[in-house]
Amino acid sequence: MPEHRIDTLFPLANxxxxxxxxxxxMDSFHAAGNxxxxxxxxxxxxxxxxxxxxxxxxLAASAASNASRRNQAAADxxxxxxxxxxxxxxxxxxxxxIQTMQGLFPWSWEAIDLMQVVxxxxxxxxxxxxxxxxxWRLTSEWAELVFVLWALRRHPSHPQLRDGTWLPENWLPxxxxxxxxxxxxxxxxxx
Length: 191
Prior knowledge:
Strand order of the largest sheet: 4-3-2-1-7-6-5
CATH class of the domain at 18-31 and 79-177: Mainly Beta
Order of helices and strands: EHEEEEEEHHH
Number of strands: 7
Largest sheet: 7 strands, antiparallel
Structural class: alpha+beta
Radius of gyration: 25 Å
CATH architecture of the domain at 18-31 and 79-177: Roll
Distance between the termini: 24 Å
Strand content: 25-35%
């Protein structure tokens, strides 16, 4: 347990300690739509040369508008990472809190079923929320800390924890240069 602790504006459990805080960006893996769109059938008509030109122009504009809506609906129907929200992440020894303009959302380590480091400062997690299962991609300077604390508590035999691939590239030399003399080798945890 570190000596330095983060102050919070919200209460923690009696044995809970805030370890870090920083910005957070959350993406959700979902489709933005179901592929449907409203087809436009605008048509104007008239008589003479002007009327024929007006009719042709409205048909062309309507077709272009429908093609654009159809393409957007097809793109929205694809599963993809889509921005969900931003806020502040507070990491504690018991889980993490997400603070947004909509409120404060606590997550205990026990509520999260799966976690994986997928890039520098980026993890994917799956959990059961009050509205059903979620798959989120969390981006924060504290993402690796979230992963390690979760894995140590919930899944000590996690492959990324055992082989050390959760560590950002060149982190060990950087930490050594910063003067961290503690045991910096990759963790050797038994399965």
